[in-house]
Specification:
α8 links the parallel β6 and β7. This protein has one domain: Rossmann fold (3-Layer(aba) Sandwich). The chain has a nine-stranded mixed β-sheet, sandwiched between helices. By secondary structure, the chain is of the alpha/beta class. The longest helix has 17 residues. It starts with 9 loop residues before the first helix and ends in a 6-residue tail after the last helix. Helices cover 39% and strands 12% of the residues. The chain is globular, with a radius of gyration of 21 Å.
Length: 443
């Protein structure tokens, strides 16, 4: 599908990023003083600043990488391909310019605040347009806040990117607890902790009504926020398909789909097992070896994106290494993967039926999680943006959704894009968000 001319496509976004891979710039603005005063809380500006000593240490580690024997069989069949990883590590060592990426990231407005004992890092990019609607965008694994950045400029200032001022958003991109520059999760952390933190974050920013967008773990957050404060959430959006009303296969296409999901569960979900049971054992290696960290992350970028087997069909080396470097320089990969353990996945006692992305849960509730019941009987409007260019698993047939629920007001359908639509297809995502929220702005 060709992106509409009223928005910005991925190629244009990459041009805006510049040769160094810089994220599109939006004029810096501060959090409104009135919002801070009203909330009576401390919101601190934050600047990403990696020390020269840390960069020198990274350089030594890259130079002294201890490589394992190459895998046999087809490239990538046992995991990250050694030949590709060597190229990536060599580029990281010899050509990647973290200082350029750091400066580009710092063109956005970064802040930190403490909520209920959690140190939360977030980007707050207010729009210059008075009709703008607040939109909180929550990332998943392994994306970090990085994955949400390509569409930020077009969302906050549509006229500068081929759109109309009436479609503007104030954009808020928080880092999940344990990810990037947010603090370590507390001992009692679960994914269900996050919606309450985000509601309080929006309170602190002075936003009474707002919309949500989230992918992967972030997809759960919007519906749960709407369940708690339905009168404040004007709409919930996520990649994927609407909840299904019938899951038993009735056609050959449906049977083939479930067979493909059986293969996917067997071949592509081992990371959930280790991250959901022994994340600390994994953390020692990933936090100590930059090559190991890059291998762990890039394998998922390849498997979950619309890259047709080559990660660089969707992500440049600069983009990949910016994501990996956020984990490396923040030392957060070990705390990021704890969200799987915190969800109770694959442990005893077993996880709740609503936790995780296992095949059994897919069978129970379809590609999109059933949203929790919302207080007062009001169903917040929902939008599903169906990006399905992933080649490692089949696309769910539309026939599995027998009847789209009335509160699902948009189900878009794209042949491209995968698990990271904000990073893979920012133009399509921007247009979907504009279309979905347009009739809801004055509701």
């Amino acid at each position: 599908m060709t992106p509409p001319q009223t928005t910005v496509d991925r190629r244009t976004v990459l041009k805006l990023m510049g040769a160094a891979g810089a994220w599109p710039a939006v004029a810096p603005r501060t959090v409104a003083a009135s919002a801070q005063a009203e909330a009576g809380v401390d919101i601190q500006p934050f600047t990403i600043s990696v020390s020269d000593d840390d960069l020198a240490d990274l350089q030594r580690r890259l130079e002294n990488t201890r490589w394992p024997p190459d895998a046999t069989g087809e490239p990538w069949s046992m995991g990250t391909d050694g030949a590709y990883l060597r190229q990536l590590v060599e580029y990281w060592r010899d050509e990647f310019d973290w200082r350029a990426q750091e400066a580009a990231l710092n063109r956005l407005n970064h802040y930190t605040t403490e909520i209920d004992g959690y140190r939360i890092h977030f980007i707050h990019q207010p729009s210059p347009h008075p009709s703008a609607v607040p939109l909180i965008m929550t990332h998943g694994y392994p994306g970090t806040f990085w994955e949400m950045l390509p569409p930020v400029a077009a969302l906050a200032d549509p006229p500068a990117h081929g759109g109309a001022a009436a479609d503007a958003f104030h954009v808020i991109v928080p880092s999940l607890p344990g990810y990037g520059f947010s603090g370590e999760p507390l001992a009692d952390f679960t994914p269900a902790t996050v919606p309450g933190l985000w509601i309080k974050l929006m309170d602190r920013l002075g936003y009474e009504r707002f919309g949500t967008y989230g992918s992967d773990w972030g997809a759960q957050m919007g519906s749960r926020i709407a369940a708690v404060v339905p009168d404040r959430v004007i709409g919930v959006t996520t990649p994927g398909q609407p909840p299904r009303t019938r899951l038993e296969p009735r056609t050959e296409e449906e049977r083939e789909y479930w067979e493909s999901m059986d293969r996917y569960a067997a071949e592509e979900t081992a990371y959930q097992l280790i991250q959901g049971t022994k994340p600390q054992s994994l953390a020692y290696g990933l936090n100590d070896s930059p090559a190991g960290l890059a291998a762990w992350v890039v394998e998922k970028l390849r498997a979950w994106s619309d890259c047709q087997g080559n990660p660089e069909n969707k992500f440049s080396k600069d983009e990949i290494l910016t994501l990996v470097s956020i984990y490396w320089h923040s030392g957060s990969i070990g705390t990021a993967v704890r969200i799987y353990y915190a969800a109770g996945m694959f442990r005893t006692p077993p996880a709740p039926a609503t936790a995780g992305l296992t095949l059994d849960n897919l069978r129970r509730r379809g590609a999109a999680a059933q949203p929790p019941e919302q207080a007062g009987g009001r169903r917040v409007p929902e939008g599903y943006f169906d990006f399905y260019g992933i080649t490692t698993r089949a696309r769910p047939p539309r026939s599995l959704v027998e009847e789209v629920p009335e509160h699902v007001t948009l189900w878009s359908y794209h042949e491209t894009g995968g698990h990271f639509p904000a990073a893979e297809e920012p133009g399509l995502l921007v247009e979907d968000l504009r279309t979905f929220f347009r009739p809801l702005r004055e509701a």
